[in-house]
Amino acid sequence: MSFESKSHQLLSKIATNNKHGENSPYFDGWKAYESNPFHPTKNPQGVIQMGLAENQLCFDLIEEWIRNNPKASICTPEGVNQFRHIANFQDYHGLPEFRNAVANFMSKVRGGRVRFDPDRILMSGGATGANELIMFCLADPGDAFLVPSPYYPAFVRDLCWRTGMQLIPVQCDSSNNFKITREALEEAYEKAKSEKINVKGLIITNPSNPLGTTIEKERLKSIVNFINEKNIHLVCDEIYAGTVFTTPNFTSVSEVLQEIEHCKKDLIHIIYSLSKDMGLPGFRVGLVYSYNDEVVNCGRKMSSFGLVSSQTQHFLASMLSDNMFVENFLAESSRRLKERREFFTKGLEKVNITCLPSNAGLFFWMNLKSLLKEKTFEGEMMLWRLIINEVKLNVSPGSSFNCSEPGWYRVCFANMDDETVEIALMRIRAFVGRQKGKTVEIKRWNSNLRLSFSSRRFEENVMSPHMMSPHSPMPHSPLVRAT
Ligand SMILES: Cc1ncc(COP(=O)(O)O)c(C=O)c1O
């Protein structure tokens, strides 16, 4: 009997159900990258990671702040006198100065147009933990949340795996640039009702992952009206709020609810994190901001499972209270994201590859329909395999985001340096040229390094728990190795 089937007997059904979503191509791309990661000198023909929504463009600003503020850390001679107090602190309300600083930061990210009450802030391990926490508070096993597609692949794991709730996609498509319509919301809601599914709410990401777009104010109002009428919850994952780099500006649900008459505020909950806007995913700072007192009370109790380390709270309280630093950081981060996105997409335009117009996020939504051999999801996967095997780029296929039409791919652009961007662009151009029958000189890849989906070596790498993604629970995930 294999290890896997034995462990299935020994472990709980909930732990071994397939809702972790590890089998998605989104994670397969990760594994392919992990088995052959690009390095400019050590492995120049390796896979470039473009499936990772990380914001690595502003580390220099944070490092400079750290150097200038040694007192912020309890592990420096300047800050060590706070060591005992902070090392002991474990109140699940969080350090008051941390909650104040975070409330202030959330307001700044939203242009200062709204204020947040520090007493409504709940802590969790990243937005991952925050999303699970809110679902635990709102949904019973079998209950459903509507989610506009395409959506963040790990929602299945974060929202459904341990809670037993389910997601029902709201179909959006390219005919209106994947915007959420009232009709699509009604259709998904009515369909669920007709199947006797108890719809508890709607979850949206604004700005959207994977689209990199923001929801306009009027549309957001219509969404809030929809959930008010149906008397269901609205969870807004605003984890990319601070990544907006060009107009239209970001409108948070917190602004909209102030403008709607008789808005049932206690149906509305915001998910936030410092993973994307500050580029600190390793700090695992996730937050739920709920307008519902009962959710705040219940969620507060749950915080015991995912407290942000007091050391991290202490450090961030200091950094995020530095208004000058925060304002400069947010402005500079947007500027760099804009510049990077433009550089990348202009490079693609040269070979007639277009992307969905976007104004936010750490990624863009690339349209490769013209390169599909057949306009099906199988065709999309065939092209994806070519891209990962031959072009050696890990981009994520639209189907892994539950996109309703084939041919879209998410490309992350903020997790690499300028030189890597150039190489990625060069590879894409060469590939497209070749696909379109042009004679483009491309390097012959060293056959030993070549990944083949049919080869045993690849299967071993893909299937081995040692090569799981950083979002994987396996003991040898890069996340664990990195610590
Ligand atoms: C929409 C969305 N929500 C939540 C997360 C998880 O973020 P965190 O690293 O804070 O857990 C991500 C990460 O990619 C995301 O894109």
TrEMBL record:
Cited PROSITE patterns: AA_TRANSFER_CLASS_1
Keywords: Coiled coil, Ethylene biosynthesis, Fruit ripening, Pyridoxal phosphate, S-adenosyl-L-methionine
Reactions listed under catalytic activity: S-adenosyl-L-methionine = 1-aminocyclopropane-1-carboxylate + S-methyl-5'-thioadenosine + H(+)
Coiled coil regions, renumbered to chain: 175-202
Domain Aminotransferase class I/classII large: 48-428
MF GO annotations: 1-aminocyclopropane-1-carboxylate synthase activity; pyridoxal phosphate binding; transaminase activity
Any GO BP: fruit ripening
Top EC group: lyase
EC number: 4.4.1.14
Record protein name field: 1-aminocyclopropane-1-carboxylate synthase
